[in-house]
Design goal:
This protein is mainly α. The protein is built from four helices and no strands. The longest helix is centred in the C-terminal third of the chain and has 45 residues. 9% of the residues are buried. The mean pLDDT is 82.
C-alpha cells in the first residue's frame, strides 16, 4: 500500500529528471533493505519494488535510464550467485570425497 501511494502521489506528479531517478533507485534500495530486515533475500524486495514501479506513468523513462545499470550489474549478480552456489556445491563434494577416501583406504 505504501509503495502504491509513493508511485501515485509522489513519483507520478514529478517530472522524471535525474533527481527523480535517484528517488526511484532509493525506493528500490529501501524495499531491498526491508526484505533483508524481515529475513528475505534483498532480491525479493527489489523485485517487489520493480513490480510496483510498473504502475508508474514514467515506466518507459525509468527503463531507459536504468538500462546502463542493468548492463553493469547483471553480470556481477550472476557471478556472485554462481560463486555462492558452486562454492557450497564443490565444498560438499570435496568433503564427501575425503570421507569416502578415508573409509575405503586399504592401508
Amino acid at each position: 500500500a505504501a509503495g502504491r501511494v509513493f508511485i501515485s502521489k509522489i513519483l507520478d506528479t514529478m517530472e522524471l529528471d535525474d533527481k527523480a531517478f535517484l528517488l526511484v533507485i532509493s525506493f528500490l534500495l529501501i524495499y531491498a533493505y526491508v526484505a533483508e530486515f524481515i529475513g528475505l533475500s534483498s532480491i525479493v524486495g527489489a523485485f517487489l519494488a520493480g513490480i510496483l514501479l510498473n504502475y508508474s506513468k514514467h515506466i518507459k523513462e525509468i527503463e531507459e535510464k536504468a538500462y546502463a545499470l542493468e548492463i553493469l550489474f547483471t553480470p556481477i549478480f550472476f557471478f556472485s550467485e554462481s560463486k555462492f552456489f558452486w562454492g557450497k556445491f564443490l565444498s560438499r563434494i570435496w568433503i564427501g570425497l575425503f570421507f569416502c577416501n578415508e573409509l575405503y583406504d586399504d592401508r
